Amino acid sequence: MTNVKEWEIVKRLVRLLADSAEDNSEESIRETLALIAKQRNLGNDKAGFEKAFRELRSELISKIDGGVPLEGITLKGKSDMWKPWFPDMQADEEWDTPRSTSYYQYLTVDKESEYTTLEYTANEVMSLLSDPRRAKPPVQRKGLILGDVQSGKTRTYIALMHKAVDCGYKLIVVLTSDNEDLRRQTQKRIDTDFIGYHNGEQVGVGKYLSMAKVPRISPLTNDNDFGKDYAGAFKNVARPTWNAIAPYVAVVKKNASVLSKFNKWLKNPEFDSDLPVLVIDDESDYASVNSSKPEDAPTRINGLIRELTIISSRTSYVAVTATPFANIFIDDEIEEDLFPRDFIHILQSPSDYIGAKKLFGDMDSQPKGSPCVQELDEEDLETWLPVTHKKTFDIVDPELHEAVKYAIDCFIIACCLRPNADTHKQSMLIHMSRFAQVQQQIADRVDDYIRSLDKAVRFHPEGDPRIERLHHAFVKEYENNGQTDGQAWENFYPRVNRFVKSGRLRVRLVNSKADDWNLQHSVPAELASNECTLFVGGNKLARGMTLDGLICSVFYRRVTASDTLLQMGRWFGYRPRYAQLQRIWMLPQSVLDYRYSCSIVEELKESARHMKRQGMTPKQFGLAIRKNPNRGVHITNTGKMRSAKEGENFQEFDLSGEIIESIRLTVNGRQLEKNDRALAELLKQLHAPEIDSGESPKAHTQVFANVPAKTIIDFLTEYKAGYGDKFGFTVFTYPNRDIEWDSSLVERYAKTQMDENPSITWNVAFINGEGGKVEGPDDLDFGWRKIIRKSSYNSDKGYFQINDERMRLGSKTDVLKVARFVYDGTIDAQSKSERDYYLTKYFGDHPSLLLYRVQINSTKGWHQNLAPENGPGLLGAKLIVPVDKKDTNHKLGKTVYVYNTVAQRNEYERLNQQKAYEQDEDD
To answer: Do residues 695 and 701 make contact, with C-beta atoms less than 8 angstroms apart?
Structure first.
């Protein structure tokens, strides 16, 4: 019999020691608990020990893993019908968690993986679901789990499934992609990590479940989806009931035919209609969200999922996704729809997770010095395969493009450099078309190139140009970046030789028509345990597909939605001991789009953190997501945003402290003339007597202070950079057209500032570079030299995109030049981030406009026709909005956001209130 009072004393002593410990770990908690339990004569009470350990682990979880907070962020809804129930179950001495313990044992022993975060998350989410106890009133619940792409969401929801069965849930339904191959991939994972059996054989967690002597799960699906065995299931398979010894699980794809059959099978008198059911909607932003017009019936899949969630009055629906943009645009006022009204839980990614921010940065900061992400030359690749092409396009060149050959060479070198790689799967992704016929042509050429390399290392080792290519990749990509562990090519090449001849390299085509191609090329159905695979495909590779040991990727696509783009990032995830070898080649626009996508995800998380501190609920989730200022991807599919609207509003995270500069420079002749006239007029106005001017003590930079806001607005009204730039015309994208406003984001900011503070003044600076002297206009009576920037030309929109190493027009040095003119004190220039100098301490409340004449540097000689080197240069601009202190916002400017329905109501109430105030003032 457990001595509850004594165990309470033991736990209190463990907490005291944990609070003073420098490094708490799961092992240290267990060891401390065992020691104190032995001292209190409780060493033989195994049941009491395990119960105390579970409680302490859950309690002290946020102190584990080196101080990284593991609790994530949870927003909880309010309901009169639902009452907290999980703490009561945890306190019950009779309650046990054999399935969860078996799963964690499997992860620890077989996978050498930590489970502390999983345990916390499973408990946190479990506590928000429907009470599974029959004696309690049934309640339906809806929630959302948000985690980063490839960060371990599947493992998280499997831990939740185990916990749910431990608590008494009788049926678990996992909804997957509409693709059968991906459904089978999920089914296999569920078999291994949850059921413990696959095709009758014990696998994965099975041996630990057997030792725990728990009832075996009843699977409703296997290698075939439910629809395949529908007739047999209808006649022979008993429905889940309260009296069933074993719970049921089904892995069902989001296919209308399959879902309708499953729902029909479940809606049967045998089925207890108040049974505890858990529905996990994996990749819930895909196919689940209603994209119909408000007046129309919901889309078929959305309607069937709604139906599934109400078959039992005790159903908990948990959406799981890395890209929740579509989910948050669900109209929360439609009760039966899938808006996560009861909870939103945002997972904390571990420190070793490689996500969008680590690889690409965001709209405000970019990683420096990393060779992982590299840009493709679109103009060069267009001659081989246009980025926009039809499904019937024929690649004329029988050879693979040089850029793809180089990427494959790097993959081979990386496979040989990766530590202990002989026994591991490794892979490369080649995603260059969404059409199966074009993908096959690419696969043909990739296969030919691999065969050619095999012949080269076997028969032509001396001086063969193919071997020299491998040598070049070794030196340029890895030796020059210090990633070869000091190995010389002469000593390293024998390893490359053995690897290419080993037969481990294999090309696999992945699309709906790939079976014949793979059969013709003798590609086995199952991957070898140490296969090094070059996957060629498109959208089928893009969502949910796991590519083990992914090292190199070629991504040559234009994608229209942020959620789709993030899901296509198979390169996100974990790269233990070989992260530095990873390489990704993509278009410059894709890099910018990933930065934007990262920014809006981080803003979403920051909104959730703020809401949690305020005690707000998902129903109050007034979320506004920033539209892409760089005119790249949209937020999500336009149909999924029917419940959203565009709006202008003051936002605390819009322009203050951001790096805002023109990186798209138009070559439109009429606009260039307007820009020159705007500059000439500005120079004339800068001679007004109230304006102070002089040279900055740093680099002879001409600076003007106390410039009236109207002078700046007059300039910005005429001056425009390239299409979609923050200094260009604001662009809105609708389903069938793009609309340009005749003002820029920066112009509207300047007008807002003057409306709020008519006496506000600006600084204007003319930044010198290393190019030729700027000639004219007449009022230019100081020295001004052009800057030189590497750029690529967008022929569709008629602008040059600055795409040098940093994709930047200006730099921290430029900010310091202005600061040292307007501030008399000492400025510490040690910080690496230029935003650290955007301070009112230096600039006061005065925004600054920095102007540049840009000399275009392009590898294509024809650019001279559009922006000649001996011409005046293209006019670029940069804005500095000062803030009170680092990482905070002070000045606000209007910018464009897209609101969900909750935010729309909040905005409506705000405007009504504002209108009432104005009427009171008029009276």
So the answer is: yes
Report d(CA 38, CA 45) in Å as an integer: 10
Strand, coil or helix: what is 801? Answer: strand
User: Rounded distance, CA 651 to CA 510, Å?
Assistant: 44
216: CB partners within 8 A, 6+ apart:
195, 196, 197, 209, 246
The tokens of 79 are what? 């309901």
Q: Reduce the DSSP state of residue 206 to 3 states and report it.
A: helix
Which pair of structure tokens corresponds to residue 412? Answer: 């081979």
Short-list 649, 778, 799, 789, CA closest to 720: 799
Sign of CA dihedral 703, 709, 712, 714: negative
| Residue 142 predicted with pLDDT over 80 | yes
pLDDT at 896: 44
pLDDT digit string, tens, across residues 454-509: 999 998 877 899 999 999 999 999 999 999 989 999 999 999 999 999 999 999 99
CB 145 within 8 A of CB 85: no
Q: Please tell me whether residue 279 adopts helix, strand or coil conformation.
A: strand
Which residue has tokens 């003044």? 761
| Token duo for residue 14 | 């463990």
The C-alpha atoms of residue 75 and residue 604 are separated, in whole angstroms, by: 13
C-alpha to C-alpha distance for 375 and 373, rounded to whole angstroms: 7
Query: Would you give the DSSP letter of residue 229?
Result: G
- Cα distance between the two ends of the chain: 77
State the Cα–Cα distance between residues 98 and 50, nearest whole angstrom. 11
Q: Are strands 787-794 and 343-346 parallel, antiparallel or unpaired?
A: unpaired
Q: Encode 478-513: b = buried (16+ Cβ within 10 Å), e = exposed.
A: bbeeebbeeeeeeebbebbbebbeeebbbbbbbbee
CB within 8 A of 350, min separation 6: which ones? 65, 68, 117, 151
What contacts 781, CB < 8 A, 6 or more positions away?
Answer: none
Residue 211 dihedral angles phi and psi, to the nearest 5°: -65, -35
| Residues facing residue 693 across a β-bridge | 704
DSSP tag of 193? I
What is the structure's pLDDT at 353? 82
Residue with tokens 């493709």, as numbered in its chain: 376
Distances (CA, A) of 750 to 114, 555, 657, 679, 881: 52, 39, 15, 17, 10
User: How far are the Cα atoms of 852, 863, 866, 867 from residue 870, in angstroms, in the given order?
Assistant: 16, 12, 12, 9
Of 728, 686, 701, nearest in space to 813 by CA: 701
Give tens-digit pLDDT for 161-215: 999 999 999 999 999 988 888 899 999 999 999 999 998 899 999 999 999 999 9
Strands 799-802 and 787-794, bridge-based pairing = antiparallel
- Residues with Cβ within 8 Å of 711's Cβ and at least 6 positions away in sequence, in order, are 682, 685, 686, 688, 762
What's the one-letter identity of residue 771?
A: G
CA triple 110-112-117, angle to 5 deg: 115
* Token duo for residue 496: 């490359």
Q: Percent of the chain at pLDDT above 70?
A: 82
H-type helices in 168-229, by residue range?
Answer: 180-190, 206-212
Q: Per residue in 429-448, pLDDT tens?
A: 999 999 999 999 999 999 99
Helix, strand or coil, per DSSP, at residue 264:
helix
- Residue 619, CA distances (Å) to 258, 307, 377, 434, 900 in order: 32, 22, 46, 38, 11
Q: Are 216 and 228 in contact (CB under 8 A)?
A: no
Q: For residue 747, count other CB atoms closer than 10 A to its CB.
A: 23
Report which secondary-structure segment, H or E, holds 692. strand 692-695
Residue 419: cis peptide before it, omega within 30 degrees of 0:
no
* Whole-angstrom distance, CA of residue 421 vs CA of residue 496: 12
Does position 246 have pLDDT exceeding 80, yes or no? yes
CA distances from 268 to 243, 251, 272, 668 (A): 16, 20, 9, 68
User: pLDDT for 73-111, tens place per residue?
Assistant: 898 988 889 999 999 999 998 999 999 999 999 998 898
